[in-house]
Amino acid sequence: MLVSVIIPTLNEEQVLPRTLVHTAALDFDELIVVDGGSNDRTCEVVEHCSSSTTLHASRFTPPRLLTAPAGRATQMNVGAAASAGNILLFLHADTWLPPDAKTAIQAAMSDPACVGGRFDLRFERDAGPAWLISRLINLRSRWTGIATGDQAIFVRRQVFEQVGGFSAIPIMEDVDFTRRLKGAGRIACLRSKVITSYRRWDACGPIRTILLMWFLRFLYWIGVSPRQLSQLYSHVR
């Protein structure tokens, strides 16, 4: 099973170098970055990593840079269409996969009934409120079968195409996608943990962020348009 990693970016020069070097070393078959029009050095970071002789001299997968209209869903769809893998892994620019990510995915997908999955999550700061929040996220995801993009969602290409990929909405594209994915077959809830940045929670405060996330999710479930929800959601860079 060939696994393609797809990373959507927009002004991620601060965190992307670490993510690319880390991910490139995990022996994936393909690494694609899809930029949505960054006005910082994001694209230069990708190009530098791709041309690095240090990477090419080792067992590294150099990243390939694509561009697309801004919007995480659109960018991930563009990356999927350009990829060669039969397993697609969608990774946020501030999230780092476990060392056994590829083998864990392949083991899960060896079950024909499994259409996709996600990892458990922990924050880079794994103490206090961050510790509790990450565990609650994992419990909620395991109970509902719904995953967020921070959990590194993966899916069979054929199933991705069957369910129509990511909906072109500005927010909740991950929730919308995994809800449709549940209808296609079994979702693997891997206990291996990705590590993700705590930057949003630091910037907005944990209590405020929790309340905002749950409020947005509640509004989404009762039918409020994602375009309206996006006006309440500020992007932290």
Structure in words:
The relative contact order is 0.15. With 237 residues, the chain is α/β, with parallel strands linked by helices. The longest helix has 16 residues, at 129-144. An eight-stranded mixed beta sheet has the order 3-2-1-4-7-6-8-5, sandwiched between helices. The protein has helices at residues 16-24, 42-51, 53-56, 72-82, 101-109, 129-144, 157-162, 173-182, 199-204, 206-221, 226-230, and strands at residues 3-9, 30-35, 64-67, 87-90, 95-96, 114-123, 153-156, 186-196. Strand 1 (3-9), helix 1 and strand 2 (30-35) form a beta-alpha-beta unit. Helix 1 packs parallel to helix 2 (42-51).
Question: By helix and strand content, what is the structural category?
Answer: alpha/beta
Task: Report the radius of gyration as a whole number of Å.
Answer: 17 Å
Strand composition percent: 15-25%
Helix run count: 11
Form type = globular
Amount of helix: 40-55%
Low-confidence stretches: none
Descriptive labels:
237 residues, 8-stranded mixed β-sheet, 11 helices, 43% helix
